[in-house]
Structure formats: structure tokens, C-alpha cells
Amino acid sequence: MSIAMFVWTFGDFVDAIVLAAVAILFAVFVVVMLFFKAWEYLENRSNRKRAKKGGRR
Questions:
Q1: Which is more confidently placed, 28 or 54?
Q2: Burial 1-25 (b: 16+ CB within 10 A, else e)
Q3: CA atoms of 22 and 34, how far apart (whole Å)
Q4: CA 14 to CA 16: how far, in whole Å?
Q5: Rounded to two decimals, what is the model's pTM?
Q6: Could you tell me the CA-to-CA distances from 10 to 7, 17, 22, 52 in Å, in that order?
Q7: What are phi and psi of 45, to 5 degrees?
Q8: Per-residue model confidence as pLDDT tens digits over 1-37
């Protein structure tokens, strides 16, 4: 009985760890995506400014 209880609680523990790991990975993925979107946006803005100043070749 105690072994079964231990396995049961250990299973819950593993589930919690897996859920936490998935949540962390998802959060990191979202942050990286947002970072790249922001980087792209800033690069495009600076490129547009440069194009306006320099004119088209």
C-alpha cells in the first residue's frame, strides 16, 4: 500500500515537473518570438529612415 501511494505521489510529482517544463519552454519560445519580431520591426524602421534620407538608388 505504501509503495502504491509513493508511486502515485511520485507520478503526480513527475506530472507537475513535466507541466512546469512545458510551460517554461512555451514562455521562452513566446519571448524569443516577440524579441525577433521587435528586432525585425526596429530594423525595418531604421532601414526605412535610411532609405528616406538617402533616397532610392
A1: 28
A2: eeeeeeeeeeeeeeeeeeeeeeeee
A3: 18
A4: 5
A5: 0.54
A6: 5, 10, 18, 63
A7: -65, -45
A8: 688 888 888 888 899 999 999 999 999 999 999 999 9
